[in-house]
């Protein structure tokens, strides 16, 4: 279970995301890949965001 709150490393003490919908979509993508047992790199996330 990966929630938006747990995904935020700073626990809400940082800057709020500029594109909340994009961040939520990326969290869902990362969760799906982790559930499949695959690793997720920052390059994969960056490519997916574009």
From TrEMBL:
Domain of life: Eukaryota
Name of protein: 8552_t:CDS:1
Protein source organism: Dentiscutata erythropus
